[in-house]
Amino acid sequence: MDYADLALGKPASYTATYTPSLLQSIPRAPLREPLGIDQAKLPFHGVDSWTSYEFSWINRKGRPEVAVMLLQVPASSPHIIESKSLKLYLGSFNQTRFTHRADVHRTLESDLMLAVRAPVAISLIGLDQLEAEGIGPAAGACLDHLDVEVEHYDVRPELLHVESDVSVRQSLYSHLLRSCCPVTGQPDWGTVFIQYAGRGIHHGDLLRYIISFRNHSGFHEETVERMFMDLLRRCEPDALTVQARYLRRGGIEINPFRSTRDEMPTMVRMARQ
Fold it and tell me: Do 198 and 237 form a contact (C-beta atoms < 8 A)?
């Protein structure tokens, strides 16, 4: 894909008054075609959960308000949002006056729905609520203690394999996920969660596979979908869920979730988030 027209990786001039034209989107189809994913017949359900920690506007009395903005974009949407353009767009609310909090919500929902060409869900979370929710523990068994030898830092799906014909149900995770922005080359760090039912997947080689994304160039959404498809094809589980919770950049984090089941992810902030 040609990313020459995107705001990402370019010097930016910031505006603090509402400017919806700052939003840019990227079509999903060209990102999915190399993975063998048919946009018209997706092999998964899912959502991209965005969290913006730097969101503020002016209320009707001239006093600033702050909130954490949660955005959920369905995996079935034909477009994703370009992250830097979202940062610039949200920054344009900073000196914009709104009569009611509901007006802010409606404006966000309308603009972002137009950007991704699909319905979105918006929540504005107060800091008291965020503090009360706190940091959650990772659920499942951590792979990171495995004393494996690692040779590959480019994606190697051939590392994935089952180790027995015994059917199991497992929840696994690793904090060692690293991929790179395809535009700027900046590293993206995250925790990846894999839940599956089916023949047991070899844990050591699963960890090697996760580490093999270390130099992978891809957006967060594409990276998770690549993992999902590799696991689905090579290990043939009866049920599969892959979720990544990435660290924020520019005050924004992206947490893609893909599953064979039509369900919503459990929203738990990790220690690094």
Answer: yes
Active site residues: 181, 188
Q: How many residues are given for the chain?
A: 273
Whole-Å CA distances, 209 to 74, 151, 212: 27, 10, 5
Question: Which residue stretches of the chain have pLDDT < 50?
Answer: none
Q: In whole angstroms, how far apart are CA 246 and each of 157, 208, 243?
A: 21, 19, 10
Contact yes or no for 229/177 (Cβ under 8 A): no
Cβ pair 233, 159 in contact under 8 A: no
Domains with residue ranges and CATH for the chain: 20-133 (3.30.1130.10), 141-259 (3.30.1130.10)
Residue 262 burial by Cβ neighbours in a 10 Å radius (0-12, 13-18, 19+): exposed
Q: Token pair for residue 173?
A: 């995770």
pTM: 0.93
Q: What is the pLDDT of residue 13?
A: 81
